[in-house]
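Message: A physicist's question: would you kindly supply an amino acid chain plus fold tokens?
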Amino acid sequence: MNALYTTTWYNGNDTDPGFTPDFTAYVIGMARFRQLRVENRSCQVAPDFRSHLDECNDWYGFFAEDDGQYDIGWEPLKNESLYNPPFTYQAWEFNTSDELDTLPVMGFVSTYGGGGFVADLGYTRENASKVIQVLESNNWIDAQTRAVITEVATYNPVANLFCVMTLIVEFLPTNGVFLYTDLKIARLFTFGGGF
């Protein structure tokens, strides 16, 4: 989070939101987390292990993907939540790839759909800290989580380059974790500077 948000200039004056701490790049839009999950009890426990295990959750796949709507803490959705939604309500509701305007991404373990449960971090460090605190205290990442994708886009006006960063943490059903990073850098403006 320290690499995304800055609050003051070198002289102590407040900055406008958006610049990275080194002031060489500007964050386009806002960073967000996107979680992909499998449905609860998406596989069967082998008979020999039923005395040791109550449930099991499958590997990620498009047919095992959880696309439900939940209340905070992955609780079943209540009527009052629809009329008085909590602060991070979108993080508990599935969004399709069309709604998010995203494409599938490939990690080490699997290819993940473009949809998911999205938590936007906002434009300030304070908002991002609050979102992360609410997600952590309500177990946003649990046994059904198969991937958390962090998506950030920046623009560096000095180099005239855009960078789209996709950082994936993949969670295995066996409790293993894989990290995957994908950086796409492009020059979208042919000319830099004024004429």
About this structure: Helices lie at 79-83, 97-100, 125-137. Strands lie at 26-37, 70-71, 75-76, 105-106, 111-112, 117-122, 145-156, 161-171, 177-186.
